Amino acid sequence: MIRVQQQGAVCEIVLDRPQQRNALSAEMIGSLAAVVAAADAAADCRCVVIKSSSEHFCAGRELAPDRERDLTSVLAYDDAYAAIFERLRVLNKPSLAVVRGYAVAGGFTLAMGCDFVIADESAKFGAVEINNRFPAAINTALLSHLLGPRRALEILLLGEMIGARAMHDMGLVNRVAAEALALAQMEAALLAQLTALDPAAVRLTKETHRAACNMPLADALVAGKQLNALLLASGRIDEASRAFAARRK
User: Fold this and answer.
1) Contact 165, 107 (CB under 8 A)
2) Distance CA 50, CA 110 (A)
3) How far apart are the first and last CA of the chain?
4) Percentage, residues of the chain above pLDDT 70
5) I want to staple 99 with a disulfide (CB 3.0 to 4.6 A). Which of 119, 186, 215, 243 is the partner?
6) What pTM does this model have?
7) CA 137 to the chain's CA centroid
8) Bridge partners of 4?
9) How many Cα atoms are found within 13 Å in the side-chain-facing hemisphere of 154?
């Protein structure tokens, strides 16, 4: 199951199936995109956190051999799964995955769909689908944007377990904590920084970042120039200048 709880300006999405290592059931998959969308629409939410209630983050999608196999049902199931990552992609607020234990297969993918990932030293990530003779389809799309082609293909084809420190060295994990208490402290500190940011500035930064990732540099510079002009015309830059002058005095 999924529990959603509001902690101040933070919307926490908690994966809560500890006996199954938080494997994503069809029901959980069907509700995750809607939960993220609701958090995006909530005025009192400034950051979305995805975490687990137990020692492991997520063991991936639940394998169910008896699931409906007609084309309509299969398409609907994978539409719901892909919708999670589309909702995370266009989320106007920062998203943070807090990883303990295993984040494998779809759990690895879920972490990679967030803007930020923090993990404790013992966390293990793996695109292990290839070991079961099928590809990590959605994670292939994500890792191909997050990493260079050689390293992404290495992770996707070898299906090896990767420690948190190695993930950090590759740029896939932002910060690594020594143990669970340090991870909780790290989470609190990062959320304090993120929720203190101006929501409009966060939204504009995320929108420009998404666009720039898919543009040639020349076009991205034009987008940046136009954003600067918008900020100047709106008075935002003048406000910042006056506030800086007041602080300096």
Assistant:
1) no
2) 9
3) 53
4) 97
5) 119
6) 0.92
7) 17
8) 13
9) 8
Residues in Cβ contact with 213 at an 8 Å cutoff, skipping those fewer than 6 apart: 145
pLDDT at residue 244 tops 80: no
Query: ∠ CA(200), CA(203), CA(204), 5° rounding?
Result: 85
pLDDT tens digits, one per residue of 133-179: 999 999 999 999 999 999 999 999 999 999 999 999 999 999 999 99
Place of tokens 């987008």: 223
Instruction: Single out the residue of 96, 105, 98 nearest to residue 59, CA to CA.
Output: 105
Mean pLDDT of 114-137: 96
> What whole-number distance in Å separates Cα of residue 110 and Cα of residue 107?
5
Q: Please name the residue ranges forming H helices in 8-148.
A: 26-41, 71-90, 106-112, 137-146
Contact (Cβ atoms closer than 8 angstroms) between residue 178 and residue 142: no
Which residue's structure tokens are 């923090």?
Answer: 118
225 burial type by CB count under 10 A (0-12 exposed, 13-18 middle, 19+ buried): exposed
Length of the chain: 249
